[in-house]
Amino acid sequence: MAPKAKSVGQHLAAVQAACRKLRLETVSPKAWTALREAEVAFSLDLQVDIDHVTAANLQALATALEPSSAGSISADEAMELWDWLGQAVGEGKAKSMPRVRALISILAQVLSQPGDLLPAAGGAYLALLAAEGADQQWTSLFQPVVFRQIMRSLRGLRRGDLKQKREKNADAAGGDDAAEADDNEVEGEKEGSSVSSQVALDLLAKVSSFCSKRGLGSSAEAAALAIDELAVLVSKPVDDAVARQASMGLVGLVARAGGLDETRRVASAVIRAVLPALLMTQERLTSFQGAMPRPLQQARATALNLVSALVKSHPEALLTPTAYTPGKDEGAVEETEPPKKRGRKAGKAGEKSKEDGEGEESDGGAGAEEEDIAATQDVDMATQEAVTAGMEGATQDAGTEGEKRPRRRRNRGHGMDDPVVALLELICIMTPDRSEWRSYASDCVITLLSEAADMERKLALAARSGALLTRRLVGKTKDPATEADAEASQQQDGEPALPIAEGGGELVSASAEAPLASAAVERFVAFLSRILQSERVCTRVLATEVAVGSLERSGRLAQGGSDGARAELVRRLLVSLVHRCSDAVPTVRGKALGGVSAALQSLAKCGDGTEHLLRKIIFEPGHPQYVDLPSLFKAAAMDEKPTARKSALNLLDAALALLHSHMKLSGEALGSFFDLNVLASLSADESILVRKSCISSLSLLLRLCPLPKVHRLWVQNVLPLVLDVEATVSERALDELEGAVVNPMSEQAQADLKNRKNLHIELPPVLHGLDSEAIEYLQRGLKQVAKRNEGKLPKHFLVAIVAIVKECLSPLPLREWPVAVWSMLEEVTTSSQSDVISFDMALDAWVRFSKLSGAGAGGFPAGLGTKILRVLEQLIPKAPQDRMNELMDSLCGALSSFTAPTSMIRGMTAAIERIEATWKAKRLYAERAQERAAWRASFLKSIQASLIAAVKGEALAEQSRLEAALFSLGELAMLDMSIISDGVVTQVQTLATNTVYRDGSRVETSPAVRGQAFVALGKCCLKKEPLAKKAVELFVLHLSTSESFVVRNNVLIVLGDLCIHYTSLVDRFVPCMTGLLRDTNELLRKQAAMILASLLAEDFIKLRGSILLRFLYVLSDPSDVVRSFVECVFARILHSRNSTMFAQNFLDVICALNGWCGLANFRGAEGNEEFSLVKSPGRRAMVYRFMLSLMSSEQKFNVCAQIVTTLLAAFVDAEEATELPKTTAEPAGQTLSDGLVLLCCKEMRICFTTQRAGQEDEDVEGGGGAGGDGKQSAADATRGVLNYVLKRNMAENIIPVLVQLKTLMEARHSPFLKQLRHCLREILRDFKDDLPAMLAGDQHLAAEIAFDLQKEGADCTQGDDHAPASCAPDSGVGTEASAAPAPSQRSGYSSSATAALPQLGGHSRRISLGTMMRPPPSPAAPTPIVDADAPGTPGGTDGSHLPKARRSSMGGAGREPASVQRLSSSAAKKRVFVEAEEGESAAGGDVTMEGKKRQGGKKKKVDDTAEKQHMKQPVTAGGA
Asked: So what's the pLDDT on residue 1007?
């Protein structure tokens, strides 16, 4: 025992020595009194002399107390220490004052003076609090004001508010309220800033160490203060080291909290305090107009690690929810008992009652923690009121304990009953509506949820192991207590699924059905399912992201990671996500579709046991969870937003892989499962991402389903994209071209060469049956592939092509020669790899082809001979002389005999030219010049002889020879016009004009011969201008409808070429050419559109006057091919040159399409009577819709004003009023009807007001990007200005005209009155709060319009089966129907699964043009005819409306044949996909009102007060 006594003496002696150096006797008892009175003060001055105090003295005290704080002394040693400290000083001013009070007074005075002594004084005070036995003296030891001084000294480690760089030098500007609110924070930062960072960091380290060793669980007030200060350092640290140190302190506080309930309470407070850091809302979001600041990201990472550490360290406290039983009528009764005091009263110094009560927790100290995190239990928690209620406790400041204020009694939250799940719920509700913030919040939720699931599995495993050990002990002992515990455990937990068998170490399966997911996951998924139907758009977006993230980690979230539990979890999430696929907001739709794709992929990974579930979900429509994948894909692919269309393709990819690999679906069934036409339309989408995804989807379908129709689909939609205007799209298409064509052929050749076998190359299936357009795309694609590979194609690919050519030269029938291979060989020979094939081999192929084709072997591919000739043409410069002569003789013989097809004559003449050019280059032409001239003269005589015989009517039976002669003559004219005599031209003209006479009677010339004659005559005109001047009228004359298609087509082509060479000569005949745009022959209309588009693109003719009106007419062409081509020309070429052409000519177009010339200065109908669509309102609507799709809001605004002030005002003009039409069938009536329809249609919707959810998703997608918020702010400012301009213009210019016209129609009982009233109502809907002002004080009319608007809202709430699904009452917040888009009755996309739209809340109910513009009624029918359009018009099928053009600011684009690639700088154009529309868009933005039944009965008088209150109801957030 002697050593122990010696030890005791050393410890106490060290403390005594340290205290002597601090001169405790200099402390006056008044200092302690002042210290007690300064408990709630923010500054401290005890009048204690501390000049003698040094850092070494304080450090010595801390060192002396360290053994006690470390617990290395016994209880006797601790008691001896506290006895000595409790004794009076015995000398000086503090003679009767206990040493501990004097010591604390000195430390408090030091801590109140910023300087280098702070860390040492703080460390000494914290060591005193941590000493063994301090809890017995806590009343005197712990002084809040001292502890507060320590914590306030840490504020120098806070960083300042983040500001934009451009704002750093700007003067701070803010209101008085903001300045007053920030006073305390500014003051705290100033005090903290006087302490150096290093001093504060050392003090923080000691605070963290104290929290980890001692904790503050016995003092709620101290814990609250420490949590608040340390949480701020986590949220706004000056550097990462500060955040990590503060995080360690918070973890230590929770670890030292005490029991389970206390740990849960402190942990909940810590989680609540760092919630702003997790949400990254500790700064004003309006300050960041660029990307997310890095400090916010670092603070979030630290806070996330902190919460994860708490979950891992204390899973029993945070993951085991406490039982909660709501009281009777909870929340419905006012609080009857007086509220508890929120802080401790400031008592007088020296009162014993106060001192005796200091060791107990005060009500106010726990007040900051007892405000639990609100875990809301219904969708209403999404409202801001619920969020504010749930977070009230988080905003309490520990420094306001003494403050009394009345507060409204509210339902207590249950966040502390389930802290982790409550935290996840709050993150989902409170995350700012910005893209990056949502992304980080989603990641945070998934991370914490995964951690919670892991820890719950560990707890369950530990519990099962404990139960197993207990049962084994029961078998070995007969202890009644042990048996009772085991029995209770078994009754409580059931029969647990043990990891090992009781009798051995083998694994056994669970005997009882385990939960599908961990308890925390189950509770959170239930909450997630509710907020997926929230009315707040941002909440649904985040909930969808979280659901998708949960699917990706479903294996970790499922209970035990079992396949069955994972499959069930995925199934539940899948059902919720399918409902959101019909959401009103494009972002939600797109993310939900991506979630469905992820769910299908996750189900496929859940093992073989899920195959039965998948078959029910995919193939059984009667199953409750049936998902109609084809309908889901089709509706999403036709969505108006690119994000949704791209998600549709992702869904298709996931479904194809699932159906092929997991469902074992056969090729034919797989190929017909989805609508491939819809898939093909996406390859022409205006979105780059959609086109790239479509390429991948088509290629995946090609690999999984190698059917002929899939091959054709790939060729028609992937090959053209190798020439896409976007480089990334063309690169993706080139990759797929290599994968489908180049690589398979190369691999076959490489494998055969490696195995030393004879090369036998199988042609890739996609190369079978290519047409001319596909072949050209293939050639250009190979050229691009070679270009990106340093100008060379793969070596083995060239070997494969040569091998196929050799097979052609073997006894292979001509019909089996692959034209695609010769096309690829042509492209190869034009590059630097022309030596891949010898001239001898190519010539042998030509000779064999000539022999077989001359022998009458039919069935060979079209264009094969031309391709062989082009290969020879490229190889001629390197050809041997003898073989070159052989080729020349073959070509000349075929031409002279007129046996060559006309399609090959151009190739033959080009080869002859190339041979002659080679001879000239080699100086061999001189010796053959005479021979060549003689042949040319002989050839011309042969042609002339054939023409003379034909003119005389003697040889018309030999039509093929005559056609060949005419075509050859044209080629000779292009080479040398000087050798063509006028007599030959006259003979050609005679054949072309069908004026061949024999014996006085005219002999009919076949249309094919006449067409070739016009071509030959046109080529002569191109080389001889005087001849062109004489013949141009002849060409125009033969454009009449009495001529055959071949003649008119060839004449049109000739006129197009003449217009390029002699523009002024043909310019006056352009109207004759545009007249063909309404021809009955579809091919001729397309040819006319292509030629005119080429001339317009090159500015040979101007788009104005009748040319513009007639070209716009083609936008309603019955043929999709013609219409999409013209749409492409407008969108990609003409509109990009002059974006105002539609707005400038809109009124002229209305009059011209209706054939009405009654409006002055708008007489476009004159001379265009044949292009009138007065009897086809559906086709007119197509033109209007396309024009409006390319117009900006400002242009639409001007067009609306022009329609009212020019068109409608003409009927009410006091001086020169136009007669009001009496019927709707006359042109004037149709024009008036179009004007009214256009003003109120949804395509003309002008919304300069605050953006509504679902209208635009660009800022939702890119809200977090660089500059996104700056652009949004500028857009909001511009929108505000335009809103004012719009409102003023409406009130001053538009509404007065409509009101006057309404009065006139009422007086004359006009049939247009109903349309006008509807138009007026829709225009004023956006200004419903200012109806009297907009109507110039007309209270009666304002009441009428308000009644109509109110009645529409009431009709939508009647609940009958015929009401549109998108109708919902404007009841604000509270009902699920109005809170979110109603889910479909069955899973998948259906017409009823549309968004719930509040009707009287200001949301537009405008109807599409295709719904409102119906055929006019016949004179005998007094009621409007609601049937299809005129026969032959698109959209004229029963029960349908006209198709809607592809949504795009550019209007979409069509894909042209290869022959018109020159129409723009881009070689590849995109096709506009026209989709059928039933009057309501897929986004649920508008409701079709035509045909809706109105309830009968008399109109009731509307109470003015009720009406005004109803009109002032707020617009729900999720309605649009």
From this structure: 92
Q: What is the pLDDT of residues 1434-1480, one digit of tens each?
A: 333 333 222 333 333 333 333 333 333 333 333 333 322 223 233 33
Sign of CA dihedral 289, 290, 295, 301: positive
243 — phi, psi (to 5°)? -60, -40
1077: amino acid identity, one letter: L
Residue 1156's φ and ψ, nearest 5 degrees, are -115, 125
% helix, strand, coil for the chain, step of 5: 65, 0, 35
- 949-952's contacts with Cβ under 8 Å and 24+ in sequence apart are 950/987, 950/991, 950/996, 950/1005, 950/1009, 951/987, 951/990, 951/991, 951/996, 952/996, 952/998
Residues 1135 and 1448: their CA atoms lie apart, in Å, by: 13
Contact 691, 742 (CB under 8 A): no
Tell me the per-residue pLDDT of 1295-1337, one tens digit each, with 9 for 90 and over.
Answer: 888 888 888 998 989 999 888 888 888 888 777 777 777 777 6
Give the β-pairing of 1001-1003 and 1367-1368: unpaired
Residue type present at position 345: K
Which position has the token pair 């340290």? Answer: 18
User: Dihedral through CA 828, CA 833, CA 834, CA 836, nearest 10?
Assistant: -90
Cβ proximity of 1449 and 1190 under 8 Å: yes
Region class of 350: left (phi > 0), else alpha (psi between -120 and 50), else beta: left
Is-contact 19 64, C-beta < 8 A?
Answer: no
**Cβ-count burial of 286 within 10 angstroms (0-12 exposed, 13-18 middle, 19+ buried)?**
exposed
The DSSP code sequence of 1344-1393 is HHHHHHHHHHHHHTS--TTS-TTEE----SS-HHHHSPPPPSSSB--TT-
Kindly give, in sequence order, each residue whose CB lies less than 8 Å from that of residue 71, ignoring residues fewer than 6 positions away. 132
Cα separation of the two ends of the chain? 85
Amino acid identity at 879: A
Q: Name which of 646, 594, 585, 536 is nearest 1483 in CA terms.
A: 585
HEC assignment per residue over 735-793: HHHHHHHHHHHHHHHHHHHHCCCCCCCCCCHHHCCCCHHHHHHHHHHHHHHHHHCCCCC
Residue identified by tokens 């045909």 is 1491
Q: How far is CA 115 from the centre of its chain?
A: 56
Read off the DSSP letter of residue 360. S
User: What is the Cα–Cα distance from 239 to 1034, expressed in whole angstroms?
Assistant: 87
Contact 1006, 1045 (CB under 8 A): no
How far is the CA of 969 from the CAs of 144, 1004, 1009, 1419, in angstroms? 111, 22, 13, 60
pLDDT above 90 coverage of the chain, percent: 23
Q: Write the pLDDT tens digit of every residue in 344-397.
A: 333 333 433 333 433 333 333 333 333 333 333 333 343 334 333 333 333 333
Q: Which single residue is written with the structure tokens 């190339």?
A: 914
User: Which parts of 1365-1493 are beta strand (E)?
Assistant: 1367-1368, 1397-1398, 1443-1444, 1475-1476
Q: Which residues contact 1373 (CB under 8 A, 6 or more apart)?
A: 380, 383, 535, 1379, 1516
Tens digit of each residue's pLDDT (9 = 90 or more) over 634-684: 999 988 889 899 999 999 999 998 888 888 888 888 888 999 999 999 998
Residue 124: C-alpha distances to residues 84, 115, 222, 1226, 1384 (Å): 17, 15, 17, 100, 68
Taking each helix axis from N to C end, the angle separating 642-657 and 688-704, rounded to the nearest 10 degrees, works out to 10
Which residues have CB under 8 Å from 96's CB, separation 6+? 29, 88, 89
For residue 116 the two structure tokens come to: 């280098």
Nearest C-alpha neighbor of 1459 from the set 1082, 933, 1024, 1091: 1091
Instruction: DSSP letter for 416, please.
Output: G
Tokens of 783: 């050229």
Nearest-CA neighbor of 899 among 855, 957, 864? 855
Q: Helix 419-430 and helix 435-476: axis angle, to 10°?
A: 170
